[in-house]
Each structure stands twice: as structure tokens, then as C-alpha cells.
Design a protein that fits this description.
The complex is a heterotrimer. By secondary structure, chain A is mainly alpha-helical. In chain A, 76% of the residues lie in helices and 1% in strands. Chain A has one domain. The radius of gyration of chain C is 21 Å and the shape is elongated. The chains are: A mainly alpha, B mainly alpha, C alpha/beta.
Chain lengths: 319, 290, 400
């Protein structure tokens, strides 16, 4: 199908990139964009497809990062094994949060705020408990090898993040083309109606949050491998939560390519403003914030929504 | 573990801190109650208000308490304009877009402040900044007591406004039933902007009460946002009494939590309350069932 | 305010001047150095102070004729903003690398330094760490990393030794200690060290209190202080929280025998003593400080103040880091990265304004680096220890 071909093209395109591009700046840019796309793609599973906006997705990110660090530092696991564990643990945390919040029927802003609270609670716990290194954080030692999931050049990391993103996109494609995905979107659009036709919203939403959390956890583990240091505010702080949801919304909720487009647009914007106006601190961020408002003003359905609007105009349909 | 005088001081301190939080939350609860938006720019707006108070004191020598009426009016106009001109236009009424717009606004405001005022922390030193009043064995800073009184007054004014005036009736109508209100001839856009303006006016008052014992820098607002949301939820979204009582309660919980668990682990009590309230009583203490 | 605008115009002018060497003379190619700091975001103040220090150094070096061994080549700073995030710091290093810098100075915050030194190591780009006190920065085996100033371990150790000495010469009036620290890397690390070493010199640590950044209110911590009544209070935190703590202590009328800071955020800050002359009186700090006997440090202080800036540690630490780097480039006779790295490695740089022992880099750390003990006396910050730099007799305890 067209989407699958698109995903394959992305994989091949980025995969071949290092053969033609040697610039560290560009490889790093692509890597960080794919990373942001993974964050957005993970958020999109629950937010775009599931209709549950989470403001505290960093919770799963942080768990992934800490598991990745602790598994290596304290239990001596190989980083690849730790990676698997990170995803699993995050998914479990997702199930836990989901079970609690969906059981009590939290939706909309209430759900958003409770996820924010969970992230903050765990940030405070991480700061206080020696197990996570408390405020000092955790650092994994530098040892570059494929077996140790550390690479001398960013290219190695580029392939890892590409793999994770492709996996997330395939899952998203599956959501668009499977029964589970259809049920999820039905629950998003009208939970009562979905229930009336025999769908179990609770289980469906649980599945979505588990998937979403797993990918956030892998993103967290990836972050740790690249930067080798994690502390409670990087892990559970609002920065990552916001990055995930902004890219997903700007890109276009509930779409396959939205997260990637959103991540790309925002990264380009932020890099451009930082480099053009670096000498007067603050101006670049003012422009970034203004552009965010402008994008939302003119693209209310996100970037992926442009395609939809164009198609609609073309076919003569009215909104 | 702690003797009575320490506990009393901690509780009183919590009440006065809570009063300031309540002032911040009053505005947020109105904005949420009427516009149904989670205003990410609330912290940045508080920061703007605080710089306003700072400049009035620094450049014109106006004492923060005297500046109160100017700040309230100024922030009201600022809020009205923001909602009418930017937020409403940009978001086309979609929830997730409003979120992004207020987020973008927060970034813009914070960095404009960085550009104009640079990043250093500013404080004001008024004659009464260090004055304390003894209440029993405890010393409570005078500005904080004034803040407490201010929060009570502000809540009372807001409750009167919303229940007793035409504007208040219109606001309540719009928040309950937008379409119906429109059909009744209420200009919804105007009411939205009025509500946003009043919400920010509360921040103007909060800033006047906060600056004598605190400081201002471009990031100062972000420390209040999370606590303000907690109070709004605890008190009930859209309820002023809830915001006041919720604020005082949260202030005391935070203070006692800090006393017993330390200032790092202490806030956990606040968020656990937040989660428990959201799960078991999402309408909060005084809110209408969602 | 005019001083602010002056600073902006001056910086812009300086940067322009440095970027475009005079036309018409056969000037050798400028030496490009990356200057990376968090000038926006949560750490903006410190980042901007650091950047100012770097630019002051470059201005001075260029005025004196640039890098002599390269024919008077002028230094051209390439400014980078780490936006208070490690990931952005790393991305900016990539950009600086491709822009052809021969070396980098930065990045103030330890977490950001961890990311920038690692990113720079990929290209064997020499990275001089200006502040970043976490010891992990120089313990990772990265051969491109050089830190001129001391890390928090050596600062904490010296602080403990000095406290014991001060106490003994006053007849040992102080027995109990309360440590108040900020919760992240620098505060927690310092507090851990203090907690272990203080009992070994005869002090009893009655409480260790951690607090968040930012903390809005210190009343509870001060109340605990009141109930535990320690002889000495040791804060290790950043400026805003330090200032709030001390003000709250003043409000609540809590006066320990001494406030003894280790890397205290406001304890040896001209800004703090100007804004809070009463609260700051008598506070002792063990922190980065310049050599008070070197007249050049007073010159630098005047230059900074003329630009409307406070002469803070960020400023003179980065200034010094830049002078070290310039000296090494001069000795390397080239802008080749490996040559500069070797020059740094073998550096015995002594023409600086810091009160350090002989310069020697071992595993990236200058073992000559050390803090000084200062005390706020009569509205000014005076060095009290070590004796060879003493400007005033220490007042210990400040309250009997």
C-alpha cells in the first residue's frame, strides 16, 4: 500500500544518507529530528488516535531512560537487553497509569492534568531516592562499541533511532488499518457509541497507552545512550512532554506522517532561529514562539492537514 | 517531633503562601471555567505583571500596594487584547490549538522579558519587606499577611462580580451554554475576552502582593503554574470559593510537607492530593460535576 | 537602561570588530574559537555572564596584538547558545566544528558540559571547561577536555579543612552543622562530600536539607533551623535560593554562629551584598575567586562594572579559561587541534589572575586549581584564607 511504500522509502532514504552526507551538523540534525519524531509518534498513538491528550508523557520517557541506566550500571545488563527492558517497563507503567485513570473515567483536561501530576510525582521521587542517583543523576561510562550501544560517530545512533521510528510508524500504520485501530478511533470519536456496538473502551485505551508508553520508553533509553547522562528534570520534566505534544499537534493529529512533519518543521525552525539570531539571546525564541502561533493560526489541522485540505478542495467537498 | 510554635508558624506560613497561590489560581479557574482552556501562558503572564510592579517601583517609585489598581487595570486590558487579538484568532476554537497558542505565547513573553530585562533576578526593597508581625510564638512577614487579606478581598470581589452583575450573569451563561447564550444576544467573543482579562487582572493583584517578599526574572512564572493547576482542580474548575479554599489548603499541605519531608520531597504531598482528587472527585471541592 | 544597551552595542561592536579584520593590511587569518553557553533558558544569567567574560578576554588579547606566534592573528569568537539543554549544546558543537573552530570554551553548567565535551571529543576538538564543577566531567577519559578551575570535590575538601582550622583558632565554639543544598548535580554532590568529611574533623551534622530549584519559600527550612539550632549553617545552592534563604533567616531572626557556604550561590556575590547589605554581613564562602593581589583582577573588575555587569565568578572564570586557551594556541604555533591539545596538556600557564598553584593538567584537571575563602566584611568581600592571599582577619564566629 502507498503508506507502507512511503515508510520503506523513508527507511531507505535515511539509511543511505550517511553515504552521501558527511557533515556532522546534518547527521546530528537528522538524528535529533527522528528522535523528536519518535516522541511525537509515540504521543500520537494515545493522543491523536486515542484522543487522550497527555501532558505528562515524560513519565514513560523517564522510566525508559532510568531503566536503561540502572540496568547497565547496577545489574550489569548489556545495553541492547536493557533497551528491551526499558520498553517493557514503560509499557507496564503505561498500563498502570491507564488502569487507574481510565477506570475512573478521566477524560479531556482531567486526563491531561493527571498525567502531568504523575510525571511530577515521579520527578520528585527520582530526586529523593538514591536508587536513581537522587539529584546527582546517573551517568553511564563511555565505551564505544556496537555491542555497547554507543557509537563513535552519530551515524550509528542515526540507524538506531531510524529503526525505532520505523517501528513506531509501522505500528501507526497498523492502527490505521486494523480492527484495533478502528476501535480506538471509534472510542476517540464517540466513546458511548463505541461501547454500544460492543467495543470495550477500557481495554482498547489500555492497549493504546501501553503502546504509546513503550515507544516513549525507548526514546528515553535512546536519549541516555546518546548523551550518557540523565537526571530527574531531564527525565521527568515538562520539556520532553511538551516537545512530544507540540510536534504531534503541529504535524497533524492522528495521521501517519504528522509527527515526522511536525518534528521536522519545529527542528528546522528552532535551528534556523538559533543560528540566525544567536548573538542577541532571546530573539530566536521569540521568533520560534511567534512562528508556533502563526503555524497554528494558518494550519489548524496541522501540517499533514494541508494534504487533507488540498484534497478536499480538489474534490469539491465542503468543510 | 516539632514543638507547637514551629508547627503553628508552618501552618500560618502555609496559609499566607496559599493565599498568593489562590490569587494566581482565581484567574486560572475563571479562564478555565468560562473558556474551557488550560492556559499555558498563565505563568508567563504573572511574570509580566511582576515586571510591571517592579518597573513602577523602580522607575516611578510607586509602592506595590499603591500600584495595585493600575496593575489590575493594566493586566485586564492586556488579557482582553491577548484573547481577542491573538488567542481567539489563532486557535479557531479547537482545544489542542488553543494549547499550542498559549504555549507559544508563554515562550514569546518569557523571551521578550529576557531581551528587555536581561536574565538577572530583580528584587525590590521596600521599607516593610523585612517587617514581621508576631502571632503567638511565630513571626509572619507583614507583606504575606497583607497578601492573605488581599486574597480574601479578591475572592469576595470576584464572587460578587459573577453573581451580582450583568457581566457576571453573561459570563455564567457563556460558560454553561455557549450556543444558548449567543442566541440570547450575548456577544460571546467579548465575554471570552472579558473573562480572560479578569483572569489576568487577578495576576496583576497577585504580583503586587508577591514582589515584596519574592523576586522576578524571566522564568519566575513557571514555578507557579503547576501549583495553580492543582488548586484549580482541587477547588473545582470555575469556582472562586474553591480556588481560595483550595489555595489555602494546598499552601498548608505544601508547608507541612516541606517541614516534615524537606523542601525537595515535600511537594509530593500536593501532587498526590492532585491525583487523588482527580481520580475520586474530579469536580473538586466546589465544582459542578463535569 | 543605558548600561544594558551599552553592553549590547559594545558586544555587537566587539564581535563585529573581531569578525572583520582591518582591510588593507595583510592580516593573518583569524583564529576561530567557539564560545558556548546557555544564554537563554533557566541558566541565562550565568550563561550571559560567562559569555561576557570570554568576550572581555578576547577584546583584551586582540588589543594587545592577538596571537603573537601566528603573526598577530586576531581571535574571532563564534558564539553559540546551548539554550540550557545538553542536547542543544551537543548540536551547537557540531555546528562550531563545521564552522572550523580550532577549540571551544564553555559551557558553564555541568550537565551541558558533559554533552559538549563528549561531542567535541569526536573531532578531537580541544574543549576548555570554564566552570562546570562536577567531577565526572574530567573523569571520563576524554583527552580533549581541560578544566582549569577546581571541581566540587576539591572545593568541598578544602572547605572542610578550612572550617576546622577557623573553628580551632577561635577556641572551637562550633560543634553542630546543618547543610542546605539544592537538589541537582552540584548541590547534591557537594552535600554528599560534606556529610562524609565533616564528622572526620569533629563536627556533628544535625541535618541535611535538600530543596528544589526554584524554591519559593524557605520558611519551613528556617523553622527547622530554629528548632535544631545548629551552630553553623552551610548552604550550597544557586543565587536566587541562597538570597531567599538568607533573607528568610533575617526575617525569622535566626542567627547561627556562622553561615559558611561551599560554592554558595550568593555568598561571594557583589550583586548580593549590594542588594542585601544587612543580610549578607559576615557570610563566609569557599568558592571560585580571583587573586586579590593581582592588579589585573581589579582592572577587569572595573571594566566589567563599566559595562554595567557584576563581577561574578562566571565572568572571571570564563575570562581566565579564555586566557589559558589563547596562551596554549600561542605556544602551539598553530591552529591545528592536536597541536593545541598538546599545548594545553603540557601547559604551565602562570600569567593569569587566579590564585592557583602551578598549572598542571592531569586527566584533564588542572591540579593547581583551588578555591579561596572569602567573608563579607564592612560591605565588601574580603579574602580570609589561605593566609598568603588574606585581605582581612576572619570574624569567626560572627555571633558568639
Amino acid at each position: 500500500m502507498k503508506s507502507l511504500l512511503g515508510i520503506a522509502a523513508l527507511a531507505i532514504g535515511v539509511g543511505l544518507l550517511p553515504l552521501f552526507v558527511e557533515s556532522g551538523v546534518w547527521i546530528n540534525f537528522v538524528m535529533m529530528t527522528l528522535y523528536a519524531a519518535l516522541l511525537a509518534q509515540a504521543w500520537n498513538i494515545l493522543g491523536g488516535f486515542g484522543g487522550q491528550f497527555s501532558f505528562g508523557h515524560a513519565l514513560f520517557f523517564g522510566f525508559g531512560a532510568y531503566v536503561q541506566a540502572i540496568a547497565q550500571l547496577q545489574w550489569g545488563f548489556n545495553p541492547w537487553v536493557a533497551l528491551a527492558m526499558a520498553g517493557l517497563v514503560s509499557a507496564t507503567v503505561g498500563l498502570g497509569v491507564g488502569a487507574l485513570t481510565f477506570r475512573y473515567g478521566l477524560k479531556g483536561s482531567y486526563f491531561a492534568l493527571v498525567t502531568l501530576a504523575f510525571a511530577e510525582v515521579f520527578r520528585i521521587i527520582a530526586v529523593s531516592v538514591p536508587f536513581t542517583g537522587a539529584g546527582v543523576g546517573l551517568m553511564i561510562p563511555l565505551k564505544e562499541s556496537v555491542g555497547n550501544l554507543q557509537f563513535e560517530s552519530r551515524v550509528g545512533f542515526l540507524y538506531v533511532i531510524l529503526g525505532l521510528l520505523i517501528a513506531a510508524m509501522l505500528v501507526t500504520w497498523w492502527l490505521q488499518n486494523s480492527k484495533f485501530g478502528a476501535y480506538l478511533q471509534a472510542v476517540r470519536d464517540n466513546e458511548n457509541a463505541a461501547q454500544a456496538i460492543g467495543v470495550n473502551p477500557f481495554l482498547i485505551k489500555l492497549g493504546a497507552i501501553a503502546l504509546s508508553a513503550a515507544f516513549m520508553g525507548w526514546a528515553g533509553a535512546f536519549y541516555l545512550q546518546v548523551f550518557q547522562y540523565i537526571d530527574p528534570s531531564i527525565a521527568f520534566g515538562p520539556h520532553t512532554s511538551v516537545e512530544a505534544l507540540v510536534a504531534a499537534i503541529v504535524g497533524g493529529l492522528g495521521s501517519l506522517w504528522g509527527p515526522l512533519l511536525g518534528a521536522l518543521a519545529l527542528h528546522l525552525l528552532s535551528d534556523l532561529t538559533r543560528n540566525l539570531f544567536g548573538s542577541l539571546p532571546g530573539i530566536n525564541m521569540v521568533i520560534y514562539g511567534s512562528m508556533l502561533i502563526v503555524i497554528v493560526m494558518f494550519l489548524p489541522r496541522g501540517i499533514a492537514g494541508i494534504g487533507q485540505s488540498v484534497t478536499r478542495l480538489w474534490r469539491g467537498k465542503r468543510d | 517531633m516539632f514543638d507547637f510554635s514551629i508547627l503553628l508558624a508552618s501552618v500560618l506560613n502555609g496559609l499566607t503562601s496559599g493565599a498568593v497561590y489562590a490569587l494566581v489560581a482565581l484567574g486560572l479557574t475563571l479562564i478555565y471555567g468560562v473558556l474551557h482552556i488550560i492556559n499555558f501562558a498563565h505563568g508567563a503572564a504573572l511574570m509580566v505583571a511582576m515586571y510591571g510592579v517592579y518597573e513602577l517601583y523602580n522607575k516611578l517609585g510607586i509602592d506595590p500596594y499603591i500600584a495595585l489598581p493600575f496593575m489590575v487595570v493594566g493586566m485586564f486590558l492586556f488579557g482582553y487584547a491577548l484573547q481577542r487579538v491573538i488567542i481567539n484568532r489563532a486557535s479557531h476554537g479547537k482545544d489542542e490549538n488553543i494549547l499550542l497558542v498559549t504555549l507559544g505565547l508563554a515562550i514569546v513573553l518569557e523571551n521578550l522579558a529576557l531581551l528587555f530585562f536581561k536574565s538577572d533576578t530583580r528584587t525590590i526593597d521596600t521599607a516593610y519587606s523585612l517587617t514581621t508581625i508576631a502571632i503567638g510564638p511565630a513571626f509572619i512577614a507583614l507583606p504575606k499577611l497583607i497578601a492573605f487579606a488581599g486574597a480574601l478581598a479578591a475572592s469576595a470581589i470576584l464572587v460578587l462580580l459573577v453573581s451580582g452583575t450583568d457581566l457576571g450573569r453573561a459570563i455564567r451563561a457563556v460558560s454553561k451554554e455557549k450556543q444558548g447564550a449567543k442566541l440570547m444576544g450575548i456577544h460571546v467573543e467579548h465575554i471570552y475576552a472579558m473573562s480572560f482579562g479578569i483572569g489576568l487582572a487577578c495576576l496583576g493583584a497577585a504580583a503586587c502582593f508577591l514582589l515584596p517578599t519574592y523576586y522576578v526574572n524571566p522564568q519566575v512564572g513557571s514555578g507557579f503554574v503547576l501549583i495553580a493547576f492543582t488548586i484549580v482542580v482541587l477547588g473545582g474548575m470555575g469556582s472562586f470559593a474553591g480556588a481560595l479554599i483550595g489555595g489555602l489548603l494546598i499552601g498548608v499541605v505544601e508547608s507541612l510537607g516541606g517541614l516534615y519531608l524537606g523542601e525537595s520531597l515535600g511537594p509530593i504531598g500536593v501532587f498526590i492530593i492532585f491525583i487523588v482528587v482527580l481520580l475520586f472527585r474530579p469536580q473538586g471541592l466546589f465544582g459542578a460535576r463535569a | 537602561m543605558t548600561s544594558r544597551r551599552q553592553f549590547v552595542t559594545q558586544t555587537a561592536a566587539a564581535a563585529t570588530l573581531l569578525a572583520f579584520p582591518m582591510v588593507g593590511r595583510s592580516q593573518p587569518a583569524p583564529v576561530k574559537i567557539g564560545v558556548i553557553h546557555p544564554v537563554t533558558g533557566a541558566l541565562a544569567y550565568s550563561g550571559q555572564q560567562c559569555r561576557a567574560g570570554a568576550l572581555l578576554a578576547i577584546e583584551e588579547i586582540n588589543k594587545a596584538g592577538g596571537i603573537k606566534s601566528l603573526g598577530g592573528a586576531l581571535i574571532e569568537p563564534l558564539l553559540a547558545d546551548a539554550q540550557s539543554q545538553p542536547a542543544v549544546g551537543a548540536a551547537e558543537i557540531e555546528r562550531l566544528n563545521e564552522a572550523g573552530v580550532c577549540s571551544v570554551v564553555g559551557a558553564f553548567a555541568s550537565a551541558i558540559c558533559l554533552a559538549t565535551t563528549q561531542a567535541a571529543a569526536k573531532y578531537n576538538l580541544p574543549h576548555v571547561v570554564d566552570v562546570g564543577v562536577a567531577d565526572q566531567i574530567v573523569q571520563r577519559g576524554l583527552t580533549n577536555t581541560f578544566r582549569f578551575g577546581p571541581g566540587y570535590t576539591s572545593v568541598a575538601e578544602l572547605a572542610v579543612t578550612n572550617l576546622a582550622e577557623l573553628n580551632k583558632s577561635a577556641g572551637s565554639p562550633a560543634k553542630t552543622v546543618m547543610i542546605i543544598h539544592e537538589e541537582s548535580l552540584f548541590g547534591s554532590g557537594t552535600a554528599n562530600l560534606l556529610q562524609k568529611s565533616l564528622p572526620q574533623v569533629g563536627f556533628e551534622v544535625v541535618d541535611v536539607i535538600k530543596h528544589a530549584n526554584p524554591t519559593r519559600d524557605f520558611n519551613n527550612i528556617v523553622l527547622r533551623m530554629k528548632s535544631l539550632n545548629p551552630d553553623i549553617v552551610i548552604p550550597a545552592n544557586y543565587y536566587n535560593e541562597y538570597a531567599l534563604l538568607v533573607r528568610t533567616m533575617q526575617q525569622q531572626k535566626v542567627t547561627p554562629k556562622a553561615i559558611y557556604s561551599v560554592l554558595g550561590g550568593a555568598a561571594s556575590s557583589y550583586k548580593f551584598i549590594k542588594e542585601f547589605p544587612d543580610a549578607s554581613n559576615g557570610i563566609i564562602d569557599c568558592n571560585h575567586w580571583f587573586n586579590p593581589k593581582d592588579p589585573r583582577s581589579q582592572d577587569l573588575k572595573k571594566r566589567a562594572e563599566a559595562m554595567g555587569l557584576f563581577f561574578s565568578y562566571e565572568l572571571f572564570m570564563t575570562y581566565t579559561a579564555m586566557t589559558l586557551l589563547a596562551d596554549s594556541i600561542n605556544r602551539a604555533n598553530s591552529v591545528d587541534r592536536e597541536a593545541i591539545r598538546q599545548a594545553l596538556l603540557s601547559s604551565t600557564f602562570s600569567s593569569h589572575i587566579m590564585p592557583y598553584g602551578p598549572t598542571q593538567f592531569i586527566d584533564g584537571q588542572n591540579i593547581g586549581g583551588r578555591p579561596l575563602m572569602t567573608q563579607v566584611l564592612n560591605g565588601d568581600i574580603k579574602v580570609i584564607l589561605p593566609v598568603e592571599y588574606r585581605e582581612a582577619q576572619p570574624r569567626f564566629p560572627i555571633k558568639a
